[in-house]
Design a protein that fits this description.
With about 280 residues, this protein is α/β, with parallel strands linked by helices. It folds into two domains: about 80 residues, ACT domain (Alpha-Beta Plaits, 2-Layer Sandwich); about 190 residues, Rossmann fold (3-Layer(aba) Sandwich). The protein has eight helices and 13 strands. Strands 7-6-5-8-9-10-11 form a seven-stranded mixed beta sheet. A four-stranded antiparallel beta sheet has the order 2-3-1-4, covered by helices on one side. It has a two-stranded antiparallel sheet with strand order 12-13. α1 runs antiparallel to α2, α3 crosses α8 and α7 crosses α8. The longest helix is centred in the C-terminal third of the chain and has 24 residues.
Length: about 280
């Protein structure tokens, strides 16, 4: 069986040796190993992919026993087990289309059992891909009830993480705190400079020369969660506002897809207010 072990704890001598010994103890063979120590927080993170003939139960027993003295956060997953994602959208389709396309190609190791939206615009797109679509309109009066319904679906469908693929609603602090480190959002990189409506038009008026996008984990602090992935494109004065929007859409879909892939492959660790992302 092919497994991935993700470990995080305070840095101290002997962790790598203990991991390799524990893998060996369950008849395992290490295929990949990446590690990093954050000098600011003194947090040690490690991702180890290995094969073992003793299965997931044998690996759990061996690694938990061998590493317990370090008091780590330890997660072990079969590589064949695809994380289950709830995707949330409003009416812009570019990020959603890319995720659905990559899943169909087999290039994104996730399952999408449900897409939730506060608009009906993307129902036909979602259902054409054989994915269930749930319309949950949000108002100031029903927001708490709708978020409760979302959490209910997360439990029923055994969702591992949530992807906000241009979902244009602000989630409550209570909702965000139920899934720390498991909600991924995408937005343009003009914040906080160009807030509110038509940020690309604002950017065009100011003659920006770089546009980009950021994917990050959602926290109760709006758009200030740990950053996972970013990208930019250089533009010139020749680009119209509509052309900037088109370039921005392309960057957003690529950045979000990369962030989701990193998450699905257990390559992201939250260390303090930032992330460690293994390539």
């Amino acid at each position: 069986m092919d497994l991935i072990a993700s470990l995080q704890c305070a840095d101290q001598p002997g962790i790598v040796h203990a991991m390799t010994s524990a893998v060996l103890a369950c008849g395992g063979n290490i295929i990949e190993n990446q590690q990093f120590t954050d000098p600011t927080t003194n947090q040690f993170v490690m991702r180890t992919r290995f094969e073992t003939s003793q299965g997931i139960d044998g690996a759990h027993k061996s690694l938990n026993e061998g590493l317990s003295k370090f008091n780590p956060a330890l997660h072990i997953r079969p590589t064949a087990q695809k994380p289950r994602a709830l995707v949330m959208v409003t009416k812009e389709s570019h990020c959603l289309r890319d995720l659905l396309y990559l899943v169909e190609l087999g290039e994104l190791n996730i399952e999408i059992p449900l897409v939730i939206s506060n608009r009906e615009d993307l129902r036909s797109l979602v259902e054409a891909h054989g994915v269930k679509f749930l319309y949950l309109p949000v108002t100031s009066d029903n927001k708490a009830a709708q978020e409760a319904e979302i959490l209910k679906k997360i439990g029923e469908l055994k969702i591992d993480f949530v992807v906000l693929a241009r979902y244009m609603q602000i989630l409550s602090a209570d909702f965000c705190n139920t899934m720390p480190g498991k909600i991924i959002n995408i937005h343009h990189s003009f914040l906080p400079g160009f807030k509110g409506a038509k940020p690309y038009h604002q950017a065009h008026e100011r003659g920006v020369k770089i546009i980009g996008a950021s994917a990050h984990f959602v926290t109760s602090d709006l758009d200030e969660g740990p950053i996972i992935e970013q990208d930019v494109a250089h533009v010139t004065h020749n680009a119209s506002a509509d052309e900037l929007i088109a370039i921005g859409r392309d960057i957003e879909r690529r950045v979000l897809a990369k962030a989701v892939k990193f998450f699905a492959d257990d390559k992201i660790f939250i260390v303090g207010k930032r992330t460690v992302v293994f390539s």
